Amino acid sequence: MAELTTADIQSNYLAQVRSKRIMNTILLIVFVALMASGFATANDRNAGGFWNGLPMLLDFPGDVISEAVERAHLLPGYFVKYLPSLIETVNIAGASTLLGGIVGLVMSLLVTRGLAPSPWLVGPLRRVLDVLRAVPEIVIALVLIFILGGGPVPAMIAIALHTVGALGKLFSEVNENASLKPIEGLESVGAGWVQRMWLGVIPQVAPNYLSYALLRFEINIRASAILGFVGAGGIGYDLRNTMSWGQGKFDEAAAIFLLLFLTIVVVDQTSSNLRNRLTHGSAKGEIHA
Amino acid sequence: MTVMPLQIRTAGHFQRKRMMSFAVPAVILCYFAYIFVAFDIGGLAERANLQNARTLVSDAYSYKTHVTRDNRDGSIDVSIEGERKGRYLDGNSPAWVTMGNETVVDLGNHHIVTFRETQVTYDIPGYGLIVTEPGRSGVNAEFPTNELPDWINASKNRVTISTDAGRLTVTRNRSEVFRYFLGWELFFFTLDSPYHGMALGTLLRHAVHGEAGAIWSEFWANKMWRHGDVAWALFETILMAFLGTFGAAMVALPLGFLAAKNFSPLGSLRFAARRGFDFLRGVDGLIWTIILSRAFGPGPLTGSLAILLTDTGSFGKMFSEALENVDGKQIEGITSTGAKPLQRYRFGVIPQITPVLLSQILYYLESNTRSATIIGAITGGGIGLMLTQAINTQKDWEEVTYYIVLIILMVMLMDTFSGWLRRKLIKGDEGGH
């Protein structure tokens, strides 16, 4: 030990730094190679190449905008025309968030250790939530469209199921941090499980629940627009119809783009303000889509 | 403070709480009632097609083999799911079909269908022998009972008999029997493969004797299930998510500095960057997908770029928020050693934010695997495309089930993988690079 001089320490340190740098460089090279080859592969598999398509990138937005500008006086009429579809899209998101939130709430209480009435159910129910979270909404929606026909209901069910999985998990993480004291107090006066949860847990966690549910609502609006595009009603469906009509109806497409954009921005802003207020301006909610 | 006002206040407080606890459920209930009317859920029962549901469910776990006779020329065709790909070639047939002058189809449980020269008979145990005679004028049928049970449907031109064992349909030109089997048909090898129907032990013996490659390629190129194509589609979907997520992170990092209050030199630049992020997020993946697919055509590149654009907005916003929360002391410390600005960022800022950024990026990687499936369904790439194609044919529900299972497994795998990577990178390398 005695021979360990400052010079040794320094050379040791420098050697470590060097090896770390080499490792990082290798990692960086691997990463860059992966990205480059990935983009090359994706480019090969694409119908049109990147460099061929790049000059045309602005053609479509250009067409849409020029048609919209040309017939700008018609836009207010289109806004009114497509407002019902927009409301349907928002309603799909709202109903599915509410439905998924309520079921997710119950599920979350059933999968939180310490709160669950039957501990042996915790594991299996968590797997159920995992599966619900893993299924993309479009899968359920397409299957349900086959059975139930087009319209908002398949989209609502599909998004609600996914929401149960997502919110169930987030809610149960919130539940884990809830204080057990009120619950013990309620138990000591003979409250049943439902009463303990309703009066002991929910008041503690309600703001966090609400904040997560609002975030989910933002995500679900986008999902509901996308599902409309594959035939589940709402503004997405109108968008596809006007798009497939092609030139001549691009002004209507522009109106729908605008409506959708404004809705998303307004909902995002409102919900993020509300969420900030719910968490007292602290700890901005992370976005887990 | 006296007792009375406190009491009154408490009473008022309770009143309000009580109101709330009734008002909130009431409002929710009202909203659901409105949705019930607006979405016409009452009319759902008429619109729903239960036959479709039954086909879907039974198809998901069973398959049927068709035995079809052309009544005009007497030729017999045996094929699985009635598909050309599943056809028994050159007079080959499964053991329960006996070909000859009279073709005897044994549906099991002593249900026997016989195609005779001019007649088609179905012997149902416990009911009797049904004799049908397809001819130019229609289908003549004789039943053992006068009153027909509801599983027999007979008209002048068509007789359909559906039993638990199978289904017989006789029309003027065609006589067709379905027999149902459990499971997914020809999942490993198609009928034309030399390995079809081989027991696992025999197959292993063949594999050991140097045929492993051939066996694998027969399986991989299975025409019915296209395992190779499916694997490639899954890879393509993950590729879209990977390129989109990491590409967005790389674009968003420098832009995040521009949008952060404590790093951006110009207020107007900051404002522009932030509105840019809002715009990218607000336009949303759907619209980006549409715009990009117009220019680049369908495929994985379009999907990757759509994810990249949308997530640049999300990442930019999150990164700039993370940057605004960095600790100034570390940067001061680095500055005091005489570091230049770039070095200050490299050693004072990046190590602080790396764990936060990495964990957010990896969260997104998992969720983007799902988005890539959805975008693939719209733009035509990856497993999303195969899924929509299979659903659109409206008959390959076993393939739909297979794809759904694969998608769920893929997303869960990505979830596990990104979680593992997150723990490893953030715990093992606290200081960043």
UniProtKB/TrEMBL annotation, chain A:
Return any one Pfam family short name.
BPD_transp_1
> Might you report a single GO cellular component term?
plasma membrane
Name the Gene Ontology molecular function terms of this record.
ABC-type phosphonate transporter activity
Chief subcellular location: membrane
Keywords assigned = Cell membrane, Membrane, Transmembrane, Transmembrane helix, Transport
Q: Does the keyword ATP-binding apply?
A: no
Localization: Cell membrane
Q: How does it sit in the membrane?
A: Multi-pass membrane protein
- NCBIfam families hit by this protein: PhnE (TIGR01097)
Q: What family does this belong to?
A: Belongs to the binding-protein-dependent transport system permease family.
Q: What is this protein called in UniProt?
A: Phosphonate transport system permease protein
What is the organism of origin for this protein?
Yoonia maritima
From TrEMBL, chain B:
Q: Which Pfam families match?
A: BPD_transp_1
In terms of PROSITE patterns, this protein maps to: ABC_TM1
* Keywords from the UniProt entry: Membrane, Transmembrane, Transmembrane helix, Transport
Question: Secretion signal: which residues?
Answer: none
Q: Where does the ABC transmembrane type-1 domain lie? A: 234-418
Instruction: Please state where this protein is localized.
Output: Cell membrane
Query: Could you tell me which CDD domains the record lists for this protein?
Result: TM_PBP2
Alphabetical GO CC annotations of the entry are: plasma membrane
This entry's Gene Ontology molecular function terms read: ABC-type phosphonate transporter activity
Q: How does it sit in the membrane?
A: Multi-pass membrane protein
Q: Which family does it belong to?
A: Belongs to the binding-protein-dependent transport system permease family.
- Name this protein carries in UniProt: Phosphonate transport system permease protein
* Annotated source species: Yoonia maritima
